[in-house]
Amino acid sequence: MAGERAERQRYAQTRARFEELYGTRPEGLWSAPGRVNLIGEHTDYNDGFALPIALPQTTLVAARRRGDDRLRLFSDQAGGEVTELSVPALAPGGVDGWARYPAGAVWALAGAGHRIGGADLYVTSTVPTGAGLSSSAALECAVAVAFDGLYELGLTGPELARLAQRAENGFAGVPCGIMDQMASVCCTAGAALHLDSRSLALQQVPFDLAAHGLTLLVIDTRVQHDLGDGAYAALRAGCERAAALLGLPALRDLAPGDLDDALRTLPAELVPLVRHVVTENARVTEAVAHLRAGDTPALGPLLTAGHASLRDDYGVSCPETDLAVSTAVAGGALGARMTGGGFGGSVIALTPTGLVGEVTGAVDRAFAHAGFRAPVVRGVEAGRGAGRVV
Ligand code: GLA
Fold first, then answer.
1. Which of 63, 102, 228, 382 could lock onto 143 through a cystine, CB 3.0 to 4.6 A?
2. Does the structure show a pLDDT above 70 at 227?
3. Does residue 42 have its Cβ closer than 6 Å to ligand 1?
4. Which CATH fold would you assign to the domain 208-380?
5. Domain boundaries, the chain
6. What Rg do the C-alpha atoms of the chain give, in angstroms?
7. Residue 226's pLDDT is what?
8. What's the average model confidence in pLDDT over 113-121?
9. 277 C-alpha to center of ligand 1: Å?
10. The overall pTM is greater than 0.70
11. Please, is 264 exposed, middle or buried when counting C-beta atoms within 10 Å of its C-beta (0-12, 13-18, 19+)?
12. What is each CA distance from 31 to 6, 295, 310, in whole angstroms?
């Protein structure tokens, strides 16, 4: 297949570039994908459920162990010089820019007591950055699986995901949940990952769009989404406060049947947050049931309902994501919603394949008419999770 040939070419180029930079061959090549979440947004840090798929867009890491404890990093996309760090000296706040994600993954591995030394890494990625597609998780996970392979650590997928999350929380300073890293490491091709964020139990749910004549469009609104700006942390803190007030370990423990009573006891500002989380968890359960029953089109209305909840209750959509959703649905998509943390980023639209041109054109025109930047629209399939590719 043309796609596979192009990937093999990309692998060969990545290895060649490593050799050019470091004067020696890499020991291997590891890959980790970005993700879109089908449903279950802002539920992971409430111990709840999510349903992401891995994207075909990936981050590649060519790597080689070193005999000392130096960590050398380079990415053509970031430019500049090779960054050189000392593994034992890695500390939060000590690394800036893109390098804090790979450095954070190494810091998390070393901090967990894994026996690792230095390495030379060359990184290249097709995951768009700032588009809400988890480019940072892909980078952390690619480096974590590379070290796992280089130093034969034998870590499980969930263990690697936890370490990559630790890199994001403790090193990059973003208080994210576990969904992005679990998706990047544990997804499988052709399936959505039904994730329980409390136990990290996971189930692969078949997600075959072609069999239903459907295409999943990812509409990058090109509004840069940045979770580090405090809004995400404030929402998370609000959820934790609500759970504490309700005497629950997490909002996951509030049953839909108890929601109305619980809402009457909470301060007004917490009511919409709790309503979103509880109804969103229920939407994940419903979505999984539809997929298991082979009724993929039934996902559509759940996506659109999820978006309304994120827009009206959780307050994390923006004019661009709202316009992409309403235009896609008016143009014939079965359902659409923002995906990821919000505040910009991307929208997914479950679209009959015969209407892809119409939906894409309608969104382009609506954005031009509103004076927004032109969106980037891609059709995606559920790809595979992180691992060694060469
Ligand atoms: C970001 C975070 C995830 C998750 C989503 C919202 O992507 O990194 O942990 O909370 O937002 O569902």
1. 102
2. no
3. yes
4. Alpha-Beta Plaits (3.30.70)
5. 2-205+384-388, 208-380
6. 21
7. 72
8. 98
9. 13
10. yes
11. exposed
12. 15, 32, 31
